[in-house]
Amino acid sequence: MTQIKQIKFRYFYQQFFSHISIIIVAFLLLSMIFAYYVEDLVYKNKADELISYGKAFLSDINETPLDADQIIKQYSNVLSARKISFSMFDKTGKLYLVNRDGLVLKGLSDDEWEKIKKGEILAVYSDYKTFDQDGVTFVVVPYVDEGRFYGGVLLTSPISGSIGMIKQINKFLLYTILIGFGVSFLQSMVLSRIHVQRIKRLREATSQVSAGNYDVKVQSSVFDEIGELANDFNHMVDQLNKSREEIESLENRRRQFMADVSHEMRTPLTTISGVIEGLKNDMISEEDKERGLQLVSQEAKRLIRLVNENLDYEKIRSNQIQMLKEDIQLLEVLEIIQDQLGFQAEEKNNQIVVDAPPNIYIHADYDRLVQILINITKNSIQFTDDGFIWLRGRENERFVIIEVEDTGIGLDPDEIEKIWRRFYKADISRTSNPYGEFGLGLSIVKQLVLLHNGEIDVYSEKGKGTKFVISFPKQSETSEAVR
Description:
This protein is 57% helix and 18% strand.
């Protein structure tokens, strides 16, 4: 099969030829219009000059008829010096050249002759037939007195002088066009090259982006569409760069997640496997078997909690849970948390103190509210020894505020924002963490608070304790947020 080679017409030449073609057409039109205007102006000026002489001659004759011969002689001398032929004609059209009979005025149409008889001036810019000459401009100025036509005066001037003037003007016009065309040629070339260079830079930048370089930038502006295109390109690159960073962050988090899950599952699985192998090979004494079975049961439950917390976190994060909000007495909830976690607090010689007025009610999902408080309180118990954990409740005009404060080890400033990350745990929790050991508790807490349209803040100082402050909007505020 014969292959047809595709011919590329480069953008530079497209721009260049489009500019030049527009300029050429514009120059041609303007030169034609200008030439026509100049020619018409030259002939019109010549005709106006002849008409003024004719009117002046008739006016002088009319004022001093006795000096007609003298007037004719004067005008004949003046006009001959200006190469203007001067003749008179009677009402029949016969011409008289300075007291001598002349030829009859020929070549005029009946309509033109009727107009002359009515007193209208006839002006012909260029004529080659009427007087059998090389070409003249002539005017016929009639003499009408009280409505009667007596004749008039004919003035003719050769058009060779006018043609010469027109040719000279056209010559200068041609030079102007050539100079203008040369300047426009250079300007079109420069402008086309500038546009092509800008597009070329965009093309090179696009190639770099396709090669994976998202840090490339092009010079942009709001001057024209190419500048706006460059702005859009830079914005696109910024978005691609952000997307790449987010993808890299997600990939790092996925790797960290897999590492954390593997780390968390390895310990209980190792314990379960070890106990089972010991029981299988009779390596555990009868008095320790019950303890081993209890350990297996605890580690199995630990794995179940890990799976459940992961599933719960994903449901909360993807907003797949249904919130059943109601008005709940805050003091009652805090006392329930105190009762449920009192034994765990006593194991570390901690004391849970509840401080809340009985008249404060919170609009929330009961199960999720209890889940939030249990996770935060467990976290306080985990990092507090021989201390106090306060569960406080108060309110203002817009929010119901819950505070969970402990006298534990506290956090460094750079750790405060990290505690909300999935699977993040302080180093101390790696060695001993019997409650909420999977590092998912606080991530779930923050998601649940956000689902209540609430806010949660942490204030902590190393060695002095930590305070969690949770703000739940009152029911009216919640309704406005939903609307």
